[in-house]
Design goal:
By secondary structure, the protein is of the alpha/beta class. The protein is about 50% helix and about 15% strand. A hairpin with a 4-residue loop joins strand 2 and strand 3.
Length: about 290
């Protein structure tokens, strides 16, 4: 039986925990190989700590975290649950939106700030077997030539992370292990993990308070209901689309029949009375057919 009702990888849990505790988010990012030694992030400010309104169904998917360090560099952090073909395009789209906003009107382009896109994903995405990948803008044949350092995309594929608790080799690995397996850890395992990385103690304290609170459970119930409403709307839209297609197909068939009546020498008035189709629609369809043939 799970110790926690909701995993750390739940979008709402992830955003609530890391957007409301900047020190925890800072510890998470500073565990990355990228942010070691002189590149360590000194401080971090979350720019969008708010969670979507319960009544706003369309906003339920907006659960990314925007943050900024003391140098003005931006961070876009997300827990992505669903696999989609347009995922790479979406990463670039949101990166570009944040990047363009780092430049104020009238400023030189050299004042643009770096934007880090950090994506924890709950599905296999890249052909590589490694769980952690970083993308930059480099020259294809001479990879040491960097066009610009302003773009950096980090992808952490959680299903590919298989390291055992006792074999964790770094703070970064302990964070990834915690995100993936934290909701299943028992006493001894929890103690072992927090000894390896003491910074995780506060994570699990806040995590427990959030996931076990009445408000959190109620929030998740509303989320599920909203998702059911969205699925219901989608199903209805698909049914309406199919019905519309059938009606349009039926109407086109009747119009083709009307044209055959005209070809037999019947007047447009007679054809309209027989088929029940207005004269204007029959004539418009005939013009369209003649245009297609020419």
């Amino acid at each position: 039986m799970l110790r926690y009702p909701l995993p750390l990888t739940d979008n709402f849990v992830f955003k609530s925990l890391f957007s409301h505790h900047e020190d925890i988010l800072l510890d998470l990012l500073n565990s990355f190989p990228e942010f070691q030694a002189s590149k360590k992030i000194l401080s971090l400010k979350v720019l969008n700590p708010e969670l979507p309104k319960l009544t706003d169904i369309d906003k339920l998917s907006v659960l990314d975290i925007h943050a900024e360090d003391v140098s003005g560099n931006k961070f876009l952090i997300e827990m992505q649950s669903e696999k989609e073909e347009s995922f790479p395009n979406r990463i670039l789209y949101y990166w570009s939106k944040i990047y363009s906003k780092t430049l104020k009107k009238g400023n030189d382009y050299n004042l643009l700030k770096k934007v880090y896109s950090i994506n924890f994903i709950k599905f296999n995405f890249l052909p590589s077997k490694k769980f952690y990948s970083v993308f930059e803008l480099r020259e294809r044949l001479e990879s040491e030539i960097v066009l610009t350092e302003d773009l950096e995309i980090h992808i952490i594929e959680l299903p590919k992370f298989h390291s055992e608790l006792l074999k964790l080799n770094s703070e970064f690995e302990s964070w990834v292990f915690a995100l993936k397996n934290g909701h299943e850890l028992k006493g001894v395992e929890m103690n072992t993990l927090t000894k390896k990385n003491p910074k995780l103690k506060k994570v699990f304290k806040e995590y427990k308070e959030y996931t076990l609170s009445t408000n959190s459970r109620a929030y998740q119930e509303l989320k599920k209901k909203s998702e059911m409403v969205m699925n219901s709307r989608l199903s209805l839209a698909m049914k309406e689309s199919k019905l519309k297609g059938k009606l349009e197909g039926k109407l086109e068939g009747e119009l083709e029949t009307a044209l055959k009546f005209l070809d037999f020498g019947m007047s447009i008035t007679q054809v309209s009375k027989i088929t029940g189709i207005p004269k204007k629609e029959i004539l418009s369809f005939r013009e369209k057919q003649l245009s297609n043939k020419s």
